[in-house]
Amino acid sequence: MKKNIIAGQSGGPTAVINASLYGVIEEGLSRAGEVGTIYGMINGIEGFLSGHFMDLSAALSPEDRELLKHTPGAYLGSCRHKLPQNMDSPVYPLLFEKLASMDIGALFYIGGNDSMDTVEKLSRYGELCHSSISFIGVPKTIDNDLPVTDHTPGYGSAAKYVASTVREIVLDASVYQQPSITLVELMGRHAGWVTAASVLARKFPEDNPRLIYLPESPFSVEQLFADVERALAQTPSLVICVSEGIKDSSGRFICEYASEAQTDTFGHKMLTGCAKILEGYLKNRFGVKVRSVELNVNQRCSGLISSLCDIEEAAEAGRFAVKSALEGASGQMVTLNRLPGPDYHMVPGLTDAAAVCNKEKTFPSEWITPDGCGIRPEFISYALPLIQGEPPRRTKDGLPCYLYRNV
Amino acid sequence: MKKNIIAGQSGGPTAVINASLYGVIEEGLSRAGEVGTIYGMINGIEGFLSGHFMDLSAALSPEDRELLKHTPGAYLGSCRHKLPQNMDSPVYPLLFEKLASMDIGALFYIGGNDSMDTVEKLSRYGELCHSSISFIGVPKTIDNDLPVTDHTPGYGSAAKYVASTVREIVLDASVYQQPSITLVELMGRHAGWVTAASVLARKFPEDNPRLIYLPESPFSVEQLFADVERALAQTPSLVICVSEGIKDSSGRFICEYASEAQTDTFGHKMLTGCAKILEGYLKNRFGVKVRSVELNVNQRCSGLISSLCDIEEAAEAGRFAVKSALEGASGQMVTLNRLPGPDYHMVPGLTDAAAVCNKEKTFPSEWITPDGCGIRPEFISYALPLIQGEPPRRTKDGLPCYLYRNV
């Protein structure tokens, strides 16, 4: 019996969350005998609860869909909204009535750990009320911190952006004769995957960035001083990469080392990144030029330096979600599984959303060098396939051309 | 009579300073009857004074030279070194003896205001000692602040990077329903050219970035509050671009507004960007999510988002410098001159280095809207041709492929 489907996006934007939406739409359209209208929630489950959704099958031309595949950000808008733990909450019957009134047969939620929590709760409530709706999660996060899956769509593009951009920072940092230190702060509050990708910027093993610090290793300023002293002797233009979430052995974040007196003129405490803090320490200790660079939001959603491999896998994850729903799966998240062997091959699979939600996969400690400031070659072998391929570049008037919902 | 030539790079790196070097080399090679060896100073005049130079004609294959054209940074290394004002300084005879011993007929110095000071002094000393060596400056600065020339090589690529990247930050900022403010801090301590380029990120006139502040307009926090209040009413996801060098009507930099108490744990004053300062002010005033992004070094030397127009013009400036020297010019800087008419045409010319050195061309006040927070369409017409064209993208293992001197 032909049913409609609906997709939503949730959590932080990435370079490929729209490629997964594209995959859902394409597979839905190709299954015209089983799938009717393809809806999109505006601003995820939060917006949907307020009645915001759109008819994607009607709104998007084939050209639009192709553009959507290569548009970073979250075309449908996103949210950070957790459904209540209590299944007796009135939210659930409200939601299921809405879905029933729209004749929805399957709901696809593209997001990270928190979004899988939504998938798990919806499918649990669905079982309680004997609903036939399928709930399938499509993984998405630059943090690469979802368990079970080999990696997550979004990570490959973030890794490529970080490696490419750090390589250019290294070029910029090396033009003068005078010794200098450049600190680059990268995303990753709890997991070091994004920061670890900076190792790919090296052209040879002893190249910059010479020192890389992840949240998974306890950080010590004294150890940093020793590492920098050693590295500066060999590389006068030193580049260091740090995760925003590095912390000391007591678990205190380095970004919290800012003096309590650090306030703006209104007396409000100012939040400072760890690289900014370390910049001051290193200036004081070594008396050389030190600067810090925070890559910030572009590392998570740049369409200018994204990975074609990542885009294609994200689209495939969206397609596989629809296929799985039509085969009756529910309460599951799509996984990416790497086949053994010398060449890179990925096949999609499924896992229980409950096995993923609210869990974190941190960077493996065995891939950090024993001195705590380097990344082992095993990671390079793992990550290199994920950053391959250049997506077609669409420009107009010299600027990137993307698909916008509101323009 | 056949003579050797030498080129140097000076000041901050850009995306196209190597394209100008490529132009010098290509033109030199094509004039084999007049030009012998093509040397490069390592780390500009400072390195040359210490005896550091290389034979570019021997070192670079045709493939290397093609790669050099598209490599950001400064292949030869750079310096920030001012020659003494006093022509009696022993530096001058030392330098001229070196040049004579290498049988140099022309010296090309690729750089900004300070580098043109070097060209002017060398040619002045050359006249004093009746040297036949030509000294020609090739303009380079992302700041676009050199007088006489319509624009400077390096600016087009920086403008393109800024416009493209801000467009993606706008995408990222607009995914949630909740109102938010994103501040983007761009380069430009004294001139607003780079920050003004953020207006190119707009897809329609009322689009983000809605508010743009340059150092050429006195900045007031009270006025910012009024502007933001008005803008937030229309655009809940507000993006604001500011130059690092915005200052108030008394001439005090906003980045100096940080409380004196703002120190690191060693008691050292911490330098903070103006966007970080304003982030605190806006959070306090509007109670919405506010974040700040400092684009930092990548805006000046990214080969990933550079302008083909800029690269070709930079190369042409290098070629024209060699042609001019061979015709007997000295003490001159190459200029880019825009021909009148509806289509963009640029022809190179020459101006006295003395007319350029130590002078600054700020952003025209008539191109700033009367409210002080916008850029007029005249600038868009001026800047759009400069960001056109996508250079070929050379990658290896998914990462940009550049030419390195030391690898």
From TrEMBL, chains A, B:
Site annotation Important for catalytic activity and substrate specificity: residues: 114
Binding residue positions for Mg(2+): 113
Site (described: Important for catalytic activity): 140
Required co-factors: Mg(2+)
Known regulation of activity: Non-allosteric.
Subunit structure of this chain's protein: Homodimer.
Name of the protein in question: Pyrophosphate--fructose 6-phosphate 1-phosphotransferase
Organism: Candidatus Enterocloster excrementipullorum
Name of the gene this protein is made from: pfp
